[in-house]
Design brief:
This protein is mainly alpha-helical. Helices cover about 60% and strands about 5% of the residues. The radius of gyration is 20 Å and the shape is globular.
């Protein structure tokens, strides 16, 4: 029977090793598009690994080497919390919608629009970058800003590279301390398999883009956050698993997919439960099609919440330890919370749910 410290350290080491491989491979790529977009998509998950590892430092042999500046620690924490979407207990849906409206959309519009000296040319100005992989949105400049954990005003004023360089350097040092190793040159993560020819980007007016997506022109800030849900889901459905078997994923890739899916589904349920936000009948029906599938109900069932919590927080309860095996997929967590499933059958269920959710979100985004 493994000890709690052994389980925590094993999970942290696997995640740190994976993140180290991803960033090494991204930096080795000749295609700057995959490098930049892949980095933006995976960044909040790297923050999640470091943030949660620091909270469990008492269980880690490398704890004395995990050091972040106050600024980097705050950025890492905000980026990690952004993954909770509408389920964040610190303000929930109202705080997230206000943040998206005031701190992202307004700041970007104020910075990028109204700058041309020729009034007749102002219709050409844009304030939103949209990035697609295999034809589907995987991130936007708004979504990336939201998940970087740094205020828009600072990023726009100082530039992403100057702001993030020191923070990412510190986070990289933490990953090395947690077990990350240099890339050996052998393909091992999505970065090495992603197709640069499948990546596209376009610049648009945020008001126009959001005004004709999801819930329609009356709720642009809801539509903006839903675009983020769409991007996250498309990322875990395609780019993240490039070159991999979705039914036999390594620990960290499965974890990223499950956590992201869980919070998208749970957040859509939160949104549907708010009668005061102005959801149209069509939007309510679209959410229902997503969250009421048998797969979605399994992923979000209250009895399985401990599965998500253990993956996210590296925190098995003492009662679980006797059933865990560090050599088993996900350390043997699956049969504890999903007695009807093994690792591959749960992986198949999660994969179906991700693909169905992505399909519905992409369809819903184009319905207005």
């Amino acid at each position: 029977m493994p000890t709690k410290a052994e389980v925590v350290e094993a999970g942290v080491t696997l995640d740190a090793t994976y993140m180290g491989r991803v960033y090494s491979e991204l930096n080795d790529l000749p295609d700057p598009g995959i490098m930049s977009i892949g980095s933006l998509c995976i960044a909040p998950f790297m923050s999640l690994v470091i943030y949660e590892a620091m909270r469990k430092r008492s269980f880690l042999s490398s704890s004395t080497e995990i050091i972040l500046s106050e600024d980097a620690n705050e950025v890492c924490g905000r980026a990690r919390h952004s993954l909770k979407l509408f389920t964040d207990t610190n303000g929930g849906i109202d705080r997230q919608l206000t943040h998206f409206e005031q701190d992202i959309m307004r700041e970007h519009s104020k910075y990028f629009l109204g700058n041309t000296w020729l009034p007749l040319a102002r219709f050409l100005e844009t304030d939103l970058g949209v990035f697609t992989y295999e034809g589907q949105i995987v991130t936007t400049t708004h979504s990336a800003t939201f998940h970087l954990g740094t205020p828009s005003s600072r990023l726009l004023r100082e530039g992403i590279a100057p702001v993030m360089q020191s923070i990412l350097h510190q986070m990289g040092r933490c990953l090395v301390a947690l077990g990350a190793v240099a890339h050996t040159g052998e393909p091992s993560a999505f970065a090495s398999y992603a197709s640069g020819s499948s990546l596209r980007n376009r610049d648009v007016r945020a008001a126009k883009h959001y005004g004709r997506s999801f819930n329609g022109p009356e709720t642009p800030y809801i539509n903006g956050t839903l675009t983020d849900f769409q991007a996250i889901t498309n990322f875990i459905a395609s780019l993240l698993i490039a070159g991999a078997d979705p039914l036999s994923l390594e620990y960290s890739v499965f974890k990223i997919r499950y956590i992201a899916l869980f919070h998208v589904l749970a957040s859509l349920r939160v949104l549907q439960g708010r009668s005061d936000v102005g959801l149209s009948r069509r939007s309510s029906e679209a959410i229902g099609r997503i969250i009421e599938t048998s797969e979605a109900r399994v992923v979000t069932h209250p009895s399985t919440r401990g599965f998500r919590n253990t993956l996210m927080h590296y925190g098995p309860t003492n009662s679980m330890l006797g059933d865990l095996d560090l050599s088993a997929p996900l350390f043997g967590l699956v049969p504890i919370f999903f007695p009807e499933h093994g690792f591959r059958s749960l992986s198949a269920l999660v994969d179906r749910c991700i693909r169905d959710t992505a399909k519905e979100l992409n369809s819903w985004a184009r319905t207005t």
